[in-house]
Write a structure and sequence with these properties.
Length: 224
């Protein structure tokens, strides 16, 4: 998962990045409007955490840019503003949730998981695909009573594809999700394929994984 934090308070940003990066989340940080605008235009994010009070612009204007460039990103507003009108306006403009500063990072993580479940149509902590159960809380997979060991990158890839079920995800998008970089050569491209091959092999020992499709020359798709 790759996220963008737009926040001008360095201490909060450092704590934020430390907390999420422990969970293998790739975090980009922009401390002002200009750098945030550039990041939104050139990268693809799963989440955008947006402070409304920026030194060189209004966070609500940046929210409009986020909706323009980040078609699939989930947006959480981080604000110290007490005026409820700002929060309401942000939600009306398309934000998915908001947190008032100061906030608990445990609450932040819970909000992220709740939004992911809601947007994906799943209202539980678990996802069932082809008889396989993905536990989103413990990052584990099981089939019936058997636990299947996936690496964090393998689980993240599988979860990302499930979040975008029935949609083709190309290798560039998968690489950004896992490493935060675009694929630049055949070796790296093959690395994505190796991860998918490992997922198929591990799950295929228990049941068919024909729902995980290869789209030749493009990428992969989970068909539900």
């Amino acid at each position: 998962m790759r996220v963008l934090l737009v926040e001008d308070e360095k201490l909060l940003a450092d704590e934020f990045l430390f907390y999420l990066e422990k969970d293998q989340v790739i975090c980009d940080w922009a401390s002002d409007y200009a750098n945030a605008s550039e990041a939104l235009a050139v990268n693809e994010y799963d989440f955008v955490f947006l402070d409304l009070g920026l030194p060189d612009g209004d966070g609500l204007d940046l929210l409009s840019e986020s909706k323009k460039h980040q078609k699939h990103a989930l947006i959480i507003i981080l604000t110290a503003r007490s005026d409820i009108k700002d929060r309401v306006k942000g939600l009306e403009m398309g934000a998915d949730d908001y947190l008032s500063k100061p906030f608990s990072f445990l609450e932040l993580k819970a909000r992220m998981q709740a939004i992911l479940r809601r947007k994906s149509g799943w209202n539980k902590e678990e996802i069932n695909i082809g008889g396989f159960i993905l536990d989103l809380d413990s990052w584990t997979v099981r089939y019936q009573a058997e636990k299947i060991v996936l690496t964090k990158k393998e689980f993240s890839l599988l979860h990302f594809l499930l979040l975008h079920s029935n949609r083709v995800i190309n290798r560039f998008q998968l690489a950004e999700h896992i490493w935060g970089d675009h694929l630049e050569d055949d070796y790296q491209s093959n690395y994505i394929d190796v991860h998918i091959k490992n997922i198929r092999k591990k799950l295929g020992n228990f049941a068919s994984v024909d729902w995980l499709e290869t789209v030749r020359g493009v990428g992969y798709k989970i068909k539900t």
